[in-house]
Structures are given as C-alpha cells and as structure tokens.
Write a structure and sequence with these properties.
Largest sheet: 6 strands, mixed
Number of strands: 6
CATH superfamily of the largest domain: Carbonic anhydrase
Strand order of the largest sheet: 2-1-3-4-5-6
CATH topology of the largest domain: Beta-carbonic Anhydrase, Chain A
Number of helices: 9
CATH architecture of the largest domain: 3-Layer(aba) Sandwich
Structural class: alpha/beta
Radius of gyration: 19 Å
Distance between the termini: 50 Å
Strand content: 15-25%
Shape: globular
Order of helices and strands: HHEHEHEHHHHHEEE
Bound molecules: zinc ion
Length: 216
C-alpha cells in the first residue's frame, strides 16, 4: 500500500518554526508534562469543525484540557454492547482514570452536522438516511430533539436552536453513563453545556434550572 506521501512543505516549515520558538521557550514545561504525566482539570467535547478553537477560546495551554471532538459534539447514550465507541471510551478515560473535575460540551453556530440532521428530519437528505452513512447514523442521536424546534419557521433560527439542543442531548446522555452520574452525585464532577457563535465570538452557557442558554 502506497498511501503515505511526504508531509506538505508548509506543515514541515510550521513545525520547525514551532520547535524553534514555542517549544524552545517552554521546554521545561513540556519536559515536566512528559515526566509527570497529564493532569487535566477538564474534558471538552466539541465538534470537529475547524472553526471551533477550543484552546484559543479559553486560553488553554498544553496539559490543561482533555479534548474529544466528533461530528456535532454529540455524546451517544451509554451502550455497553462490546462495539467500537470512541466517544464513550474518551469519556470513560477522562472520568475514571484522569478524574477530571469538569466535563464541558461545546456546541457551535453554523454546524454542518446539525444542518445535515435538519435536512434528514425534513426528508431532504436521502444520502444521510442510508445505512452506510456514518454521519447520518451518528446524527440519529440528535433526531429525537427535532420535535423541540420543528415549529420554528425561520430556518437560520431553527438551526441555531437545534445546535443548542446538541449540547442538551449530550448532557442528558452523559448522565446515562453510571461512572458519570455517580461522580456528579458525589460532587467530584460537574457538567457544563456551552454554545459558541463563531462569527460573533459569543459564548452561552446552559442553565439547567431555567432550561435555557445564557450569555457567559
Ligand atoms: Zn459542528
């Protein structure tokens, strides 16, 4: 199999630039992280979208966040069925081994995965409904929440509200994991739901009592 090609030149240049500046200025810190292991205080679950810059938003350095990214920042329900569950594996490791104190789900505006789910719910995306569509089957996690936004006429507003529902669905599904719910009950772990507006740089936090998102 000849699938591996040389790394693009621009990446090679950027790497050497990083090694000569950021790394060299923080060598001690990198070595300490390597020797002592990671002790992140928080896990973040965000979308794969390249515009969601988790570490930049929170000014986080290496070693601070345990980050998992997937399409539309979704957490599936707890399903110990022996299958391959990448998201669930990351959550299990963060909560039971790293013992993070905070678990943050970060949704975002203009989410392509959410738009795909809307199209699917409106019967406009047969390609996503195919059994072979990994994206479609992944977005099935969100489908039950469409009822909450189905009556919103403005399509942009509908998408923004549905994006916020990815966060709520993930928080609800997180609590179906026994090791998450027990850590939350013990007070060792707290869950946080956030949604960021990419164009505006805005950040909203889900208030579970008011059941709505409020600006941070
Ligand atoms: Zn997204």
């Amino acid at each position: 199999m000849d699938f591996a090609k040389p790394l693009p030149t621009y990446l090679v240049k950027r790497y050497h630039g990083w090694k000569a500046t950021t790394y060299s200025e923080n060598q001690f810190w990198y070595r300490r992280l390597a020797d002592e292991g990671q002790r992140p205080r928080a896990m973040v679950i965000s979308c794969c979208d390249s515009r969601v810059h988790v570490t930049s938003i929170f000014g986080a350095d290496q070693g601070e966040f345990f980050i998992h990214r997937n399409i539309a920042n979704l957490v599936p329900p707890y399903a110990p069925d022996g299958d391959h569950h990448g998201t669930s594996a990351a959550i299990e490791y963060a909560v039971t081994v790293l013992k993070v104190a905070h678990l943050i789900v970060l949704g975002h505006s203009q989410c392509g995965g959410v738009q795909g789910c809307i199209d699917m719910c409106k019967g406009q995306a047969p390609q996503l409904e195919a059994k072979e569509s990994f994206v479609g089957r992944w977005m099935d996690i969100l489908k039950p929440k469409f009822d909450l936004v189905v009556d919103i006429e403005d399509s942009t507003e509908q998408a923004r509200q549905f994006e916020r529902q990815t966060v709520v669905a993930s928080l609800e599904n997180l609590m179906t994991f026994p090791f998450v719910s027990s850590s939350v009950e013990e007070g060792a772990l707290s869950l946080h739901g956030l949604w960021t507006d990419i164009g505006e740089g805005g950040l909203e936090c889900f208030d579970p009592h008011q059941k709505k998102f409020v600006p941070v």
